[in-house]
Amino acid sequence: MEEIKKNDDKILSAQNVHTTFRTHGKSVKAVRGVSFYAGYQEILAVVGESGSGKSVLMKSILGLMPENAEVTADQILFMDKNILEMTPEQQRKMRGKEIAMVFQDPMTALNPLRTIGFHLTEVLKRHRGMDKRTARKEAIAVLEQVGISSPEKRLDQYPHEFSGGMRQRVLIAMALCCRPKLLIADEPTTALDVTIQAQILELLKKLQDETGMSIILITHDLGVVASLSRRIMVMYGGLLMEEGLTEEIFYSPKHPYTRALLQAIPKPQAGDRKRLEPIPGMAPSLIDPPDGCPFAERCKFACEQCEKGIPKYRVYSDTQRAMCIFSAEELDARERKVD
Amino acid sequence: MAKYIVRRILTAIPMVLLITILCFALMHFAPYNAIDAMTTPKMSPETIELIKAKYGYDKPLFIQYLRWLNGILNGNFGYSIVTKQSIAGDLAVRIPNTIKLVLPAYATAYILAIILGLLAGSHKNKAADKVIDGISSIAIAVPSFWFSMLLIFILGYKLKLLPIVGMHSVGKEASMADFLRHFIMPFITLTFTFLPANVKFVRSSTVTQFSEDYVLVQRAFGASRGEIMFKHVCKNVLLPIITRLGMALQLLVTGAIITETVFGWPGVGPYFIKAIQGMDYPIVMIILVLSSTLVILGNLLSDILYCITDPRIREMG
Ligand SMILES: Nc1ncnc2c1ncn2[C@@H]1O[C@H](COP(=O)(O)OP(=O)(O)OP(=O)(O)O)[C@@H](O)[C@H]1O
Ligand SMILES: [Mg+2]
């Protein structure tokens, strides 16, 4: 795997992350050597189908994996500190304070027997050493910031008195409590209905503008990120298939998987009457992953070569690279032939 | 919430009535009844009729039931066929004796179960869990009479440390120390009987809570193991456990039948067993009515406790 150039504008950079689960004698290789980075003040989108390893990758970096998971990496640098060399206690103190994470399902993310206020003030007391009264005041301010009305009253309510969208706002508020440098949002809108989804994403964008924090936004919906992210990384079968600036991914995607993903998004505004093309087939099993490119069996360009070993990255620009044996030109030529 | 509780109380009443009807019917249709106990085959039919009339057995069934029920409600539980003693009078002595034994044993088992269950559940598949859960599994399968025999054999017979039967030695009825010496073995047996199922309940409840999403979220926000345990998981585990208290209500009467019998503890247990052996129907039925009523009341109590403690239900109508 090639080195990504060391650079001071990276808040988080990870080299060669592997995560393997061991269950009942089988091992599931959920992440298989991913190197990536997130820049200061940027929104990085991580996209890929269900099961591609997006959540596992991020949880691995935060040290949130269960005991049956083994995480290895050459290096994981967060603001020039190597996370791998931290003690578990140091990692714990970093979580929620410097890197916060918001999860997919807001309905189950809060303790049903604790008030919203308890959830928020605990974080403030823990990481910012506030006393009860100051923490309460701060909690009210943060709730206001995420657009919850009459926060004073809401503070004493229990999670079941909040709708899904409101709970996600509470979780985002929890994440904001300590003004983290990096927010990882793991499909924060998947469980919510469409209008609420847009509101939450807008909120994230607004908060990013206000606080200047970096956001890693995990989603399996490329359409969602177009207007939001600066860069996109595309994952599949535990591998990083392609990464690039948002424009690069949308206007000149290099990897066949990225292209397939793009063809699967509805584009009402584009006006072209091209049919949506779902990607045929299913994601490969991670228990016994194929030796070669994991996308090969679903790829219309696949040839024998693809099944022999994981391809090297082709670098297209300072910011864009893709893991495919074919260059973009070769793919274009083949595509014309196929059509 | 008040409305819900009132509704629950109102539905409990017909249940209790139904139980009394069932018990009465069972008693009535039993092959051997109170009249048979009071008469002998040699008596003339006239005499038998007279006795029937005297106790009201010549009235229609419905009236008999109402009289019986009315008696129960007024604390008149009828009379033992065998000893002719007032059942209410007997129980007034027996039930407190049983409570003296069951209450401390259940309380001890309950507290120990919470501690051990939380400990095991929070260390799932680690050494502590394997030991606690393993022993609980075995203990569930050990019959309490066997365990009490073992205690009697070791503490009572071999080491001669403790008295084997009864609640007091003759002539030492007022001595607390003497009571305690009699109390220890049945107490240990009962605690040991109540403990394993409760440990398993607390453990599995703890394991479930630890696998909930909110625990992962708390970890993601830097909560330590201790904070997760004591500020989050504990409360969620204790809720279903508090409600279990209500279910234990009926144990106060019938919770120690075997143990009491083995140790000759003068509680409800030996009284009940003797009544069964002597076909003393009125006693058996009254105890059944009492314990089933306590089951229903206990359930009611559980629901009320749940209402008070769980914010999700507290809000509802
Ligand atoms: N605790 C675990 N034990 C075993 N395997 C796991 C565990 N957690 C995740 N996996 C496996 O790791 C793979 C990647 O899962 P991951 O949750 O990262 O997918 P994802 O890309 O986040 O998908 P989604 O969009 O559905 O959230 C999956 O195949 C999953 O089965
Ligand atoms: Mg996921």
TrEMBL record, chain A:
Q: Where in the cell is it found?
A: Cell membrane
Q: Which Pfam families match?
A: ABC_tran, oligo_HPY
Keyword NADP assigned:
no
What Gene3D superfamilies has UniProt attached to this entry? P-loop containing nucleotide triphosphate hydrolases
Q: What is its main location?
A: membrane
Residues in ABC transporter domain copies: 12-262
Q: Which GO terms describe its molecular function?
A: ATP binding; ATP hydrolysis activity
Q: Which SMART domains match?
A: AAA (SM00382)
Biological process GO annotation list? Answer: peptide transport
The record, for InterPro entries, names: AAA+_ATPase, ABC_Ni/Peptide_Import, ABC_transporter-like_ATP-bd, ABC_transporter-like_CS, Oligopep_ABC_C, P-loop_NTPase
Report how it sits in the membrane: Peripheral membrane protein
Keywords from the named record? ATP-binding, Cell membrane, Membrane, Nucleotide-binding, Transport
GO cellular component terms given for this protein? plasma membrane
Name the PANTHER family on file: DIPEPTIDE TRANSPORT ATP-BINDING PROTEIN DPPD, OLIGOPEPTIDE TRANSPORT ATP-BINDING PROTEIN APPD
Per the record, the similarity remark reads: Belongs to the ABC transporter superfamily.
Q: What is this protein called?
A: Peptide ABC transporter ATP-binding protein
Its taxonomic placement starts with:
Bacteria, Bacillati, Bacillota, Clostridia, Lachnospirales
TrEMBL record, chain B:
Which species is listed as the source?
A: Lacrimispora celerecrescens
Cross-referenced Pfam families, in alphabetical order? BPD_transp_1 (PF00528), BPD_transp_1_N (PF19300)
Record carries keyword 4Fe-4S: no
Q: Which residues cross the membrane?
A: 12-35, 101-122, 134-159, 179-199, 237-263, 283-308
- Name the SUPFAM superfamilies on file: MetI-like
Q: What is this protein called?
A: Peptide permease
CDD domains from the xrefs? TM_PBP2
Q: Which InterPro entries match?
A: BPD_transp_1_N, MetI-like, MetI-like_sf
Q: How does it sit in the membrane?
A: Multi-pass membrane protein
Alphabetical GO CC annotations of the entry are: plasma membrane
The UniProt family comment states: Belongs to the binding-protein-dependent transport system permease family.
Subcellular location, record wording:
Cell membrane
